[in-house]
Amino acid sequence: MTIQELAPFLQMLSADILSLAILTFILTNVIKKFIPENFKNKVGLLPFVLGILLSGIYSLIAYKGIDFLSILKKGVQVGGVATFIYAFIKQLLKKDTLENTITKILNGILDSTTLKTAVKKILEGYSLDGEDSKNAELISEVIKNSTAFSDDECKTISEIIINALSSK
After folding, report:
1. Domain span at residue 39?
2. Model-level pTM?
3. In this structure, are residues 54 and 20 in contact, taking their beta carbons and an 8 Å threshold?
4. Residue at 98 is within a domain
5. For the chain, what is the mean pLDDT?
6. Three-class secondary structure of residue 81 per DSSP
């Protein structure tokens, strides 16, 4: 998803939901830092719980009253948007890490003009869904078209890149 695709989604949100979602996102990440490793996979509902709590506090301050249904509805929206923000930022960071890793590995193999083109082609076709065999084929094909390496050498380089990316 690009920023252009994100803009219409953000325009649908009210300022209070967006600001509470950003606060929820920040608090969720801070809280996750202090949670022991064996409990980190059990905090999937944390943004929603924090969203409901923050919506309740906001409702008390802004409207001087409590409407439980409204708080629950707004809290779930806030939690959903906070989760979306998390996924969007993670995707952006993953793409950046992906590009840097591929560039570092191919830097010594390809010249600078070929390197930029090859990295661009790999990123355009690379699947973040974890289909390593398809990604390896793509990387191998791009390297083969960019160099005079044999099929085995291209496959080895693509496996090195896949292993490096899966360890991130």
Report:
1. 3-91
2. 0.57
3. yes
4. no
5. 82
6. helix
Report yes or no: 155 and 137 within 8 Å, Cβ to Cβ.
no
* 68-105 per-position pLDDT tens digit: 998 999 999 999 999 888 887 877 766 667 788 888 88
Give the integer Cα–Cα distance in Å for 90 and 159: 24
Alpha carbon 95 to its chain's center = 8
Query: To which H or E segment does residue 116 belong?
Result: helix 112-125
C-alpha to C-alpha distance for 142 and 4, rounded to whole angstroms: 29
Where among 26, 61, 91 does a domain terminate? 91
Query: Is residue 100 in a domain?
Result: no
Q: Which of the listed residues 43, 59, 91 is the one where a domain comes to its end?
A: 91
Lowest mean pLDDT among 18-22, 68-72, 109-113, 139-143: 109-113
